[in-house]
Design brief:
Methyltransf_11; alpha/beta; single chain; SAM-dependent_MTases_sf; transit peptide
């Protein structure tokens, strides 16, 4: 969600190394009753009533499935006052009026954890308030094409996953989460961020725009410890976030874990190879910069492709415009 202020003209977009063909998602049968679930250990749910909306959620500690004794549908419409449990860890996770907290420290009374600088920056009320009120718009100076064009580009990459469940990771104030929800493209849209204040902004915008809440869920979670059952998610989108993650490799590995075979990961970030003469200097300064700011610097498309391959994602392709890059990769089938 960070950015660079680079004054560059917005050139026409061109594709690089487009993946041939589109991945085929496996056929799925979804239960029509309100007592069905998918769990990693069936022995744990002998007497539990579980909503079908719980099928994706997992304990961030042990990754066993979470369930609700009340059988309530887990969506933004019923998040307030909800509680879900892990039978393995005996931990209860609670929802407030806006989001469900599925962080490792969620529900702790005394313990608090300070995250890297970039993460803490976006937890502040001021930055959360300003994000859609000027902050994100400045990304055009770094080659970002504008929200409408960026959303269309993402939808083109994500088209094979239509009708499934999508996570908008590091969603910020929910700029793209709300667009996905309004598009009707997915059966469930999960807006996920670590920042409580960003999620509250998302909730407020959702109310202002009268977006239906039945197929939308707001979750607070750590990008490196995603609270979802392995192989349960059809698509993950991460807009202008990859460079802000404390460990991109840990985050992309988690995304790969939760994606179904054939699932698609789409992300946007910055690549600084536009100024080729500066790349050698940036290579030297990169590590001190990362340590000081907690922001990551990417110097080539090859770095991002290598990152995806290392985490089990294939079919890498990207679109460039100056420093801006949108990447797409697919979970192996």
């Amino acid at each position: 969600m960070g950015g660079l202020r680079l004054h560059l003209p917005l050139h026409c977009f061109f594709g690089a190394r487009k993946a041939e063909g589109k991945p085929i998602l496996p056929f799925r049968i979804q239960a029509s009753t309100s007592t069905s679930t998918i769990v990693s250990n069936p022995d744990l749910v002998q007497d539990a009533k579980v909503s079908t909306r719980m099928r994706n959620l997992a304990c961030p500690i042990c990754f066993d499935a979470l369930f609700s004794k009340t059988g309530a549908t887990i969506s933004l419409a019923s998040t307030s006052g909800s509680s879900i449990e892990c039978n393995t860890c005996n931990k209860v996770y609670c929802g407030n009026d806006a989001f469900l907290d599925l962080t490792l420290s969620g529900g702790t009374m005394d313990y608090d954890e300070t995250m890297p600088l970039a993460t803490e920056l976006f937890r502040s009320p001021l930055v959360s308030f300003l994000y859609e009120r000027g902050w994100r718009q400045n990304f055009v100076w770094g080659g970002f094409p504008g929200v409408e064009r960026e959303f269309k580009m993402a939808k083109d990459f994500l088209e094979p996953t239509t009708g499934g469940d999508i996570i908008d990771a590091s969603c910020g104030s929910g700029l793209f989460s709300r667009l996905f929800a309004k598009s009707g493209m997915y059966s469930l849209v999960i807006a996920l961020d670590y920042s409580e204040n960003m999620l509250r902004q998302c909730y407020e915008f959702t109310n202002q725009e009268n977006i239906p809440k039945e197929n939308l869920l707001l979750i607070r979670a750590d990008i490196s410890r995603l609270p979802f059952v392995s192989g349960s998610i059809d698509a993950v989108h991460a807009g202008a976030a990859l460079h802000c993650w404390p460990s991109p490799s840990a985050a992309v590995a988690e995304i790969s874990r939760i994606l179904r075979p054939g699932g698609v990961f789409v992300a946007t970030t910055f690549i600084l190879d536009t100024f080729s003469v500066a790349v050698p200097v940036l290579s030297i300064l990169r590590q001190p910069y990362i340590r000081a700011t907690s922001n990551n610097l990417f110097l080539s498309e090859d770095e991002l492709e290598d990152l995806c391959k290392a985490c089990g994602l294939t079919g890498f392709s990207c679109i460039r415009n100056g420093p801006f890059v949108m990447i797409s990769a697919t979970k192996q089938t």
